[in-house]
Task: structure prediction
Amino acid sequence: MGYPHPIHPKETPVLSTYFGDAEARTVAGWKARGGYQALQKALAMTPEQIVDEVKASGLRGRGGAGFPTGLKWSFMPKDDGKPHYLCCNADESEPGTFKDREILRWTPHALIEGCAIGQLAIRAETTYIYIRGEFTEPFHVLTAAVAEAYAAGILGADAMGSGKRIDIVIHRGAGAYICGEETALMNSLEGRRGNPRIKPPFPAVSGVFAKPTTINNVETLAAVPHIINRGAAWYASLTLSSPKSLGTKLISVCGHVQRPGVYEITLGLPMQELIYDLAGGMRPGRTLKAVIPGGSSVPIMTPAEVDGCPTDYEGIVSRGSMLGSGGMIVMDDTTDIVYQVMRLARFYAHESCAQCTNCREGTAWTTRVLERMLAGKGKESDIDLLMSLADNMTGKTICVLSDSCATPVVSGIGKFRSEFDAYISGARSLDVVEVS
Amino acid sequence: MSGHDTVPYQPVFVGETLAKLEALYPKYPEKRALLLPALWLVQEARGWVPPEAMHEVAQQLELTAAYVAGVATFYTMYHLHPVGRHFIQVCTTSPCGICGAEDVARELLVQTGCRDLGATSPDGRFTVVEVECLGACGFATPLLINDDFIESVSVDTVASVLARYP
Amino acid sequence: MTQELVSVTVDGIAVQVPKGTMIIEAAKQAGVLIPHYCYHPSLPSPAVCRMCLVEVEKAPKLAPACVTAVSEGQVVHVSSPVARQARQGVLEFLLINHPLDCPICDQSGECELQDFVFQEGRSGSRYGDYPKRYAPVEEFGPDVLYVPNRCILCTRCVRFMNDVAGDNVLEVYERGDRAFIGIDTADQLDHPWAGNVVDLCPVGSLLSRDFLHKARAWDLDKTASICPGCTQGCNMTIDTRDSTVVRLRPRPNMEVNRHFICDTGRADYRWMNRGDRVEAPLQRIGDRLQACDWDIALDRFAALASEAGGATVVLAGGRASCEALGWTLRLVGETPRAAAMRVPIGQEAPIGKIPSLALRAERAANVAGAALLGVGSDWSAAIEAARTATLVIVLDATLTDDEANAVRGARHVVHLASLSESAHSHADLVLPVATMAEEQGVFVNRDHRAQRYLPARPAPGMARPAWWVASQAWQRSAPAERRAPATASEAFGALRPFAGLTYRDLGLTGRAVATVEASR
Result:
């Protein structure tokens, strides 16, 4: 199976260089492409040196929150005598996001190498890679790669002949979006319901198995070997905009574009270029209606907001949304915003863990109101009701799942009010099955 | 207890399956962490997770039956009742939804003979369920048939895809 | 070690609390109740109900008061508009699937959902006519019913069984708004302390079958008491409806039973309502017992006691108070030939994860109090001694036929009895006494904690507390120099092991007293 698209001139292939190259999946193939040199180098470095290098690179968490990676690593205690763990979050489940899947499928050794270096940086002996259950193919590819890395002596009691122990365990999820939330992931890994935990304690103090833990996203860890190989200064030089948004970012573009796929950009690339040049723009005769730029949990952007927006952390925030996971959902003028907002609400209602009252009940209620509105049974007061429910679901729960459900509702109503009104007035209606 | 079987229940955790479970112990500092892997082993061996197997898992991992059930019912991928020979998960979440996934889902129902999402076809060949985001949004519509991840399925290609699953 | 104190302000009231205290507890110190459901002081806090969100100045968002520790100078607002609105939102969410069946719900009147909705909920529902979630009532165990429709998923029951009882039979099943509390079909909620989940449930989702539809909460009178079932001395409340005991519930005492009582103690109240009582003093005239007044009865008792003196044997039941035991001994000159309390032995049943809390093997309330007063527990030796005693005083103990035969060997027998029993037929006197549910008194538990119990219902007929009977007889033995105590508190304070203490000193959660060894 070939990779869906050739590299576009406006891309900056770093992590994605070998996407589509099946040979890169093997140890020999990875080594032939310069792989495991970074790990070799890191094995000769002190943890502090690794952390400092990553800090200097400006690498930020690629899972959604954008927290500086080196800083996160530096929170891990030193000389505490306890086991430390690295968790790799491969539970990619945010609608619109499918970038980590490509890393897992094509360059598993990039991830293994990143995990190994991360482990050295935080003085952990084991990495647990938590991969979502639905990722069957990536699971098999990664499992084979880890087995090969053990066989080749890259992992194990004497990693690359260094005398240091590096272990990687792949742990398979079983269908729960919320397990992508770091504390829910830790609970799930421990064999519990995937309920997010209250913080504090923070993972660096008491994480998985109540031991100091760092959790990093697949893409974040996969970027680390490149930083170690080519230096922090090189990575930090990769930017087209803000000095706080450095390096490359995989953006998964989906929806109504002609060439959906995963594109690696230097942060700051104008969003329009991403949508029109890289992803091929709208289908013939169609116009852009809305973009959800960072996975379904971030506010919807209008074409006016997309216009001139740099694709980076700060640029998108300044336009009222977020870069998030880099999962970009593009919607053209055929899109029924009300229906899609309902569909997202239904997603969150399905995925709510049931702990917090506001989320458990609020996501389901919001879905019901929207379903009924779509069926032509909406009321004038439903708009106020939805906004009020959204308010009661924002900033009031342990994790942000309920906030994420409220976000498309608020931005949808705020930016596409007339579509909601059309359903309420009876000008439109759909044959919607009220699922919930 | 399951009500489906007239033959006595045969334990799952014997022989190879037990060996697979035991091989996992050294990888985790706590037995409880083997719960998800153990349930996967059950499903691999039986095609679903019967209540008796949950009791077995509870016994193996020194947990209570309620604890195991609480966890098993949290995750959507464990089949808590028998399913068709081929289990089809079709993603209809927004990114796929706007690209025609709901039409694909309807077509799957029509062609498999499953009367409803979640139902098994009368011939026992297929069960079709809607799944929330398979994480392949750029390749609408993705299906997960058993362990096979199939991308870019359209209404037109449903028949040829199903033909591969007799 | 002195604890570091932190100053915080809750709704304008400044308090100082130990460092590490959670806001919800600090607020209690300030006299502010922060509404909550999942929080319980005897359980770990999951912070899931989101009801206790409060405004903390300088914090970016509302904080869950149950898991947010106080910090120096913190300013907390519980009744600010923002906090109120947040609670109103949670209440509305909790109500969308909660049936409005308060009129037929046992919890009504003591329901925290009802109370807080009444206090600050919305006046109407915005939920409209969507159907509410429905699932049938389930039997969780011998006495516990689960009404899933009313469940607000606070998980107190799950946490009690898991973290306190150590018997993880309840769990949250499913997720989202499909979640419910589940139990395995092969399991039962039959842990010896399982009944506590009914008290812990803030709504009417977990119900006691025993109490089902028995009374409305607002019709109940509540009386502080001590469970007489074993030497643990769990603090409890006796709930009565028109003087009939309908329910026993734990009363918090962090030193003794935290917030719990065992199912054995909880279920053991029917004897308190028995109708086959001795209601008037009975004296032997010829070969039959005949009712008389207290004057006659007490005079005769005093005469028998004076005559017998040290040749007396005292046989006490396990619920005899310190006051009753102490004054009976005083009546016979403090040195009876033998004195014993009957202490049935059962199986010890620990709660699980609280080491100091169990249903104890010794199934009598006042073993330690009796020992302090010189009443041992060698029952069979006392029965033997009774065969040849001049006087046997049976202090509200039910005798077996063999025991009754042994006692018949004594020259005189006086029963201070609550129940009317066949063993009385050979007695010289049968004096009607109140049960522990009908009098004030003190039990001393196994940790030497003296704890008061209060009367929950009137004693029937002419029945009086046993200490009153004994002390009145004692006064009549030498009226010139003796003055019987006028109150139970006086009767208590006059006893040597408790010299100088009053009921007020004990309060309603008791106080440690010297051990037998130390008091010698």
